């Protein structure tokens, strides 16, 4: 089955450590996205990529970094510079960066203590 | 991009139609209305989208007013599994979904 895989589902880290969240898609989609969701809140865009080797900052990019070396993969690194990293992180993809629906993974819940 | 306004919560009896409203009074001519839903601790799921005309698929119907300033998502026969947060979003055609804004949505509770 085609889809988006995020791993791991739960991740625990100590404060001051960088951590990388994985996102892989086999839908042959050009565009990929990372969102953050805090309890009781909507989704906020961190980074997005419309094509391989290109990406743009979203609304809350500070403290995060991404890479897009392959079409299928869009890993997100949460750096120690991110002030409040504990959150639910969602990866999504779409056929193109225009009028096409987003397909979401099931998220990674990151807890930093 | 236009913003949307949705009620924070709604209840619906199982088997009845659930009608979820959304206001998007500043929508522009080339912006589509999209609906997604999110079941607790899962990723959001695409439901339906439209521009001007009413749309229907196997999941739901989307009714857009003639002036396009509001829309209603209709789940014709709600089940307990439809309990979720429903998000209404507007999106520029051809624009990057990097500008996609997910608000807080409407929490729909379907009750037996």
| Approximate shape of chain A | globular
The portion of residues forming beta strands of chain B comes to: over 45%
- Give the overall form of chain B: globular
Distance between the termini of chain A: 36 Å
Helical amount among residues of chain B, as a percent range? under 10%
Low-pLDDT residue intervals, each spanning 5 or more residues of chain A = none
Report the β-strand fraction of chain A as a percent range. over 45%
What's the total number of strands of chain A?
Answer: 11
Oligomer: heterodimer
Poorly predicted runs of chain B are none
Structural class of chain B: mainly beta
Mean pLDDT over all positions of chain A? 92
How many H/I helical runs of chain A?
Answer: 0
Instruction: Give the helices and strands of chain A as they follow along the chain.
Output: EEEEEEEEEEE
Number of strands of chain B: 9
The end-to-end distance of chain B, rounded to whole angstroms, is 38 Å
Largest sheet composition of chain A:
7 strands, mixed
* Largest sheet: number of strands, sense, barrel closure of chain B: 5 strands, mixed
Overview of this structure, please?
The complex is a heterodimer of chains A (113) and B (112). Chain A has 113 residues and is mostly beta strands. In chain A, 0% of the residues lie in helices and 50% in strands. The mean pLDDT of chain A is 92. Chain B is mainly beta and 112 residues long. Chain B has a 5-stranded mixed sheet, with no helix packed on it. Chain B has a 4-stranded antiparallel sheet with strand order 2-7-6-5, with no helix packed on it. Chain B has strands spanning 9-13, 18-23, 31-38, 45-50, 55-56, 61-64, 70-75, 84-92, 106-111. Chain B contains no helices and 9 strands. The model of chain B has no long low-confidence stretch (mean pLDDT 90). Chain B is globular and about 40 Å long.
Spell out the key features of this protein:
heterodimer; A: 113 residues; mainly beta; seven-stranded mixed sheet; four-stranded antiparallel sheet; B: 112 residues; five-stranded mixed sheet; 0% helix
């Amino acid at each position: 089955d085609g889809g988006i895989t995020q791993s791991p589902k739960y991740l625990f880290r100590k404060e001051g450590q960088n951590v990388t969240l994985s996102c892989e898609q086999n839908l042959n989609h050009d565009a990929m996205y990372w969102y953050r969701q805090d309890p009781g809140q909507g989704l906020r865009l961190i980074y997005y990529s419309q094509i391989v080797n290109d990406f743009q900052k979203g609304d809350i990019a500070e403290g995060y970094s991404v890479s897009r070396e392959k079409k299928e993969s869009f890993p997100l690194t949460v750096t120690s510079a991110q002030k409040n990293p504990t959150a639910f992180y969602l990866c999504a993809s779409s056929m193109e960066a225009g009028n096409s629906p987003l397909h979401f993974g099931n998220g990674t819940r990151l807890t930093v203590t | 991009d236009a913003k949307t306004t949705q009620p924070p919560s709604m209840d619906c009896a199982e088997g009845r139609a659930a009608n979820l409203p959304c206001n998007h009074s500043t929508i522009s001519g080339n912006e589509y209305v999209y609906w997604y839903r999110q079941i607790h601790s899962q990723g959001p799921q695409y439901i339906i989208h439209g521009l001007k005309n009413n749309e229907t698929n196997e999941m739901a119907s989307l009714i857009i007013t003639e002036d396009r300033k509001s829309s209603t998502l209709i789940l014709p026969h709600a089940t307990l599994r439809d309990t979720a947060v429903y998000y209404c979003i507007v999106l520029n055609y051809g624009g990057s979904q990097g500008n996609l804004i997910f608000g807080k949505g409407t929490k729909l509770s379907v009750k037996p």
